[in-house]
Amino acid sequence: MMHRATFAKALAVVGLCASTVPAAAQGVPIIDGNLLKQNLAILAEQERDLTRQQRKLSRAEAQLQLDAEIIAELDKLIEAGSLPVGPTGDMIQTLEAGAGQSAASAQTLYNPTDTNAAASKTFGDAALTVEEVIIAGTKATYSHAGVSKAGLSQAQWRALLQAMIWQESRFNPFVGSHAGAWGLTQLMPGTAKEVGVAGDYRTNPYSQVLGGATYLARMLSMFDGNIVLALAAYNAGPGNVQKYGGVPPFAETRHYVQVIPAKYNEYLAAIGGVDALGTIAPVDAAGANLAMMGDGASAYGGNMVQEIAAIAHRLKAIISQMEQNQNPSQAWALNTYARAEMGRIMALRVRVLAAQNKTVSAEALQQATAHAEERKFMKFSND
């Protein structure tokens, strides 16, 4: 290219020089100095223009080379970023399915519907109050022959059960005695087995009411509907009632058969029907609610141990895939999946915190109710 430019330049000089000799007079050449000066200026400008054009051409060639390099790099990125569709889809599907453990599947572990077995005792409408549990137990056992022998209506049968539960446990489903009695109705292990609730009576308040009501109904049937003797038998055992031909001479039993009928009358006056709510003193209801919420939260947290193990299994599977991966785009997919997994874990943590807060709220209510009772007791009047 430079040889061609030099040759063109030479031709231009020759042409310019020739144009400065327009004619010859009498054999002597005549040179026009002004014309020569103009032509030389034109030649100089042409040289500068040629240099500029050469520079532009060099820049254009360099730009074309750079574009080619950029395109080549983009092709590499496109190739590296192309997801191996089959393997990636299979990988995500395997992780979603629990990486070999069905309990660790996303559907099981992160189901929008809480699958924790204790969720029904902790959240929502299924979390019954102790009063609702007593009502359910009343209805379930009202058909026993002993209740009929005593001539009790449903409301009366509920009032009797509620009074007995107040005496036995103050409505705490998870209180035990030194002798081994447990729950709302203070069932002994042998009695729980006898009435068919041994399987879950220590954790299920309804089973406690069902078992205690069934046993009391049997005592009513055994003693011909006599409520006092049935209560004495519930407390001291039917053998002692038969042995002494009436209420045994035990201080605890004698107190038992006096305080429960008094409490029965109190509850019966408040219970307009078997489904009546708000008949338990606020301090007792708040204490019972605290006990039930505490048990529900404890069970909920205990069940989370298995879920935590499943989470650990899932995270281990994700990390293992990351270590084995060689494809950049697949690495991005795994990183995104891991971030989504952390979001799911946070959702589970919110559920646990909610269960804890239920207990905190129940405790605050119990304390507030107790303080209100104290203020009521300390309020003096001259009337």
From TrEMBL:
Keywords: Signal. The keyword Signal applies. Pfam families: SLT (PF01464). Residues 1-25 form the signal peptide. The keyword Glycoprotein does not apply. Residues 149-251 form the Transglycosylase SLT domain. Coiled coil: none annotated. Belongs to the transglycosylase Slt family. Belongs to the virb1 family. This is Transglycosylase SLT domain-containing protein.
